[in-house]
Design a protein that fits this description.
The chain has helices spanning 42-57, 62-65, 72-85, 138-151, 173-182, and strands spanning 26-28, 32-36, 95-101, 107-117, 122-125, 128-129, 163-169, 185-196, 200-210, 214-215, 220-221. The two termini are 28 Å apart. The chain is 26% helix and 29% strand. Bound molecules: coenzyme A. Coenzyme A (COA) binds next to helix 1, strand 6, helix 4 and helix 5.
Amino acid sequence: MTRCNHENNDFAKGVGWTPPEQITCHLETERLIVRSYTPDDTQAMFDAVNESRDGHLLPWMCHWADKGHRTIEDSTKYICEQHLALQNSATFSDVGTGIFEKSTGRFIGGSGIHDVRRATASCETGYWIRRDALGNGYALEASERTVSWALQSQDAGGLGLNRVRLYCSGSNPHSERVIDQLGITREVEQREDYFIPTIGLTTRLGWGVLAREWDCTNHCALKP
Ligand SMILES: CC(C)(COP(=O)(O)OP(=O)(O)OC[C@H]1O[C@@H](n2cnc3c(N)ncnc32)[C@H](O)[C@@H]1OP(=O)(O)O)[C@@H](O)C(=O)NCCC(=O)NCCS
């Protein structure tokens, strides 16, 4: 996404980022825990997606909310895949994580590290919140912490990446607002580059933040 067809993404080239040998995700914020999935999360994830799919996750998250999690077996498979994604750091490129309310332990949505590009030490992140947990600022809170995880040094428990990207459709104002609130740089506006089912061609909006622009202790953008 948003890269040149001729770019060299050979793992051996570029800045040659490699992941930590052991990748674990257990992040805390004031109200949330963002962590790797376990098999015990399967039913909760299945329920959350099914309660939230129509008119909420769709049309925005069509790549997995439409076809995925239609059966409990789909959710089991998804959670196994996320678990496996963390087992072999040599192939690590993408993992979904769950967002849980700290006070209740309730599963309220998903986040993750996606499309890791070793040549540029960069990744994408994203989020969704189940329908009945909307309006609490949870996506912003989870995203701030996830960006810190991505950009924090490996010695300090982070992934040690240099850049995080976030994208949304220009027709998704709720998502646009979340990313705007991160206070990072809006870099991309690609017209008619993002097809959203039921809407059609929309503008792709993209933001990026570099490690030197982010405060991984306070989980916020550094003031320029
Ligand atoms: C984008 C999203 C994660 C934001 O959720 P959130 O963290 O709960 O959003 P906020 O807490 O900032 O909500 C602020 C306000 O917008 C409202 N809102 C947020 N998302 C909404 C939605 N999808 N539909 C209607 N209203 C919504 C909230 O109810 C709240 O209203 P209020 O101020 O009157 O209380 C959520 O809308 C979502 O999961 N959307 C579907 C998946 C998606 O688009 N993911 C991003 C793909 S790029």
